[in-house]
Amino acid sequence: MNDNRLIIFDTTLRDGEQSPGASMNLTEKLEIAHALAELGVDIIEAGFPIASPGDFEAVQLVAREVTGPTICGLARCNPADIHRAWEALKDAAKPRIHVFLATSAIHREFKLKMAKEEIVRRAVEGVKLARECCENVEFSPEDAARTELEFLAEVVEKAIEAGASTINVPDTVGYAVPEQYAGAIRYLKQNVRGIGKIVLSVHCHNDLGLAVANSLAAVKEGGRQIECTINGIGERAGNCALEEIVMAIKTRSDFYGLELGINTKRLLPTSRLVSRVTGIHVQRNKAIVGQNAFAHEAGIHQDGMLKHANTYEIMRPEDVGVLRTDLVLGKHSGRHALSQRIRDLGYHLDVQQLQKVFEDFKVLADRKKTIYDADVEALAESVLHTGPAVWTLEAVTCSGGSATVPCAAVALWHKEGVIKKDAGTGDGPIDAVFKTIEKITNVYVKLRQFSIVSVTEDEDAQGEAQIEAEFNGRILRGRAVSTDIIEASALAYLQVINRALLREQLKMNPQTEEVSVT
Ligand code: KIV
Ligand code: ZN
Questions:
Q1: Which atom of ligand 1 is nearest to the CA of 144?
Q2: Strand-pair partners of 396
């Protein structure tokens, strides 16, 4: 193994999916896994097979269909988990089992109620059993960053002896700071027998906003695998953001001197895909993939940029997949120009999807004079929304004003082919629309956030509605775009309702809550 090669281990589908409200269906997971393979990640952690039948199915499908990266499944150090993981992974061309067991004092005492000897014994048994199924085994001492270094070194050494080929050092609760985390990696390098023959991996959570900084510090000490997620999604404040760590390593290759297998031009399209599928919006000023990441506002900066881009730009936008030109399309643009633009924007649509986008494009072109990239993206993303919808919108109308009772009329199609119509009132016209949708679908959610933003800056811009709602204690998100903000709001609300119905249908088995990890 080339010592300068940094392995990118993506856990968007496992740790990332643990973000509140980010659960994905099978088709969506497969779509993301294909995009990750195209991005060039080395390893995809596709799920935690014992957690639920849905997780098992997703890992199995990704293992069977996605070629290129190693496909990994998570398991605790017990026979049931490990056998289940292997069952899901066994058809992969390059499978990996990732076993974990907590090692910190607080986890030993309160969660596991196990003494140190017991932890070592179980870790060794777990790794050995995983090795009986699969050659490629990763071991994670959960909460490693809060584990006594001596004990951590002991567990790691025994796990290597038992056959682990990758040792991961999780900062499970995002408590570490760079010097200390790097110190733990250094300590392991200096004190563990056999450490030279395995890959040391880093896994940082972002509770203190330090996940990327901690991962970089560890890389400097010899960490050669980074566990990360697209857009940094994950439980609580999330995980190390893949796009940030990749661009830091690439932009500062003078300092790190490491090689990566990532096609960075796919970063932005992959980020958008994950945002669309999970409904988790990327903040405007987010590094690398935020809308403002390459925008220069101050006059002095703009002037400098015109003279030489490097005065204020450390990366070329096109290197992360930003297209410099905002080609304008209109009513008379043909199918060829549109499909070319869709490809340039990083979408891979099949013939039917292209046809649908073309039809929607013609409708949009009648409503809107100029169509920008953001509009084309919104169209492409709406056909890519593959989640099985129980309810779809046929029509919505509403009225409001200061001297009237806000009311709405809504017609929805049920997937069985039945149309249902109803009308209702609310505190405002949009509230009336939402209440009427709830009445028709008989699904009631608690709205927590609602916003409308314009997709482009022109006067006839499309509006993007974003919704966050609570359903049975879970956060669900919806997002939709239309030139009509009422229609966009209704579509986004329906997305939430459909996700709520999907949740009910896939209701995880009781074990899931118990076994979910960060
Ligand atoms: O954060 C964590 O400890 C994890 C492990 C399962 C690797 O996600
Ligand atoms: Zn984690």
A1: 3
A2: 410
Considering only the C-alpha atoms of the chain, give the largest distance between any 2 of them, rounded to a whole number of Å: 79
pLDDT in tens, 17-30: 988 777 788 888 99
Tell me how far the alpha carbon of residue 134 lies from the centroid of ligand 1, in angstroms: 20
Q: Which of 52, 119, 126, 130 is nearest to 89 (CA)?
A: 130
Average pLDDT value for residue range 165-192: 98
Among all chains, which residue has been given the structure tokens 């608690």? 446
Specify the ligand 1 atom closest to the Cα of 143: 3
Q: Whose atoms come closest to the Cα of 98: which ligand?
A: 1
7-278 is classed CATH 3.40.640.10: no
Residue 173 Cα to ligand 2 middle (Å): 8
Q: Count the alpha carbons within 13 Å of 457 in the hemisphere toward its beta carbon.
A: 2
**For 211-239, what is the mean pLDDT?**
97
Question: Across 26-165, where does the E strand assignment appear?
Answer: 43-47, 70-76, 95-102, 137-142
Q: Domain segments of the chain: what residues? A: 7-278, 292-323, 335-384, 391-506
Superfamily of domain 391-506: Alpha-isopropylmalate synthase LeuA, regulatory domain (3.30.160.270)
- What's the CA gap between 445 and 470, in Å, rounded? 6
Pairing of strands 95-102, 137-142: parallel
pLDDT tier, 511 (very low <50, low <70, confident <90, very high otherwise): very low
User: pTM, whole model, 2 decimals?
Assistant: 0.81
Tokens of 199: 């890959």
Lining residues, ligand 1, CB within 6 Å: 15, 100, 140, 142, 168, 170, 172, 203, 205, 517-518
How many of the other CB atoms lie within 10 Å of CB of 348?
14
Residue reference for tokens 């088709």: 27
Distance CA 38, CA 116 (A): 43
Q: What is the pLDDT of residues 374-404, one digit of tens each?
A: 788 888 877 875 556 899 999 999 999 988 9
115 CB neighbour count, 10 Å cutoff: 11
Q: Are 452 and 485 in contact (CB under 8 A)?
A: yes
Quick one: DSSP state of residue 107? I
Strand order of the β-sheet with 474-482 is 446-454, 463-471, 474-482
SS3 at position 504: helix
Residue 155 CA to ligand 1 center (angstroms) comes to: 16
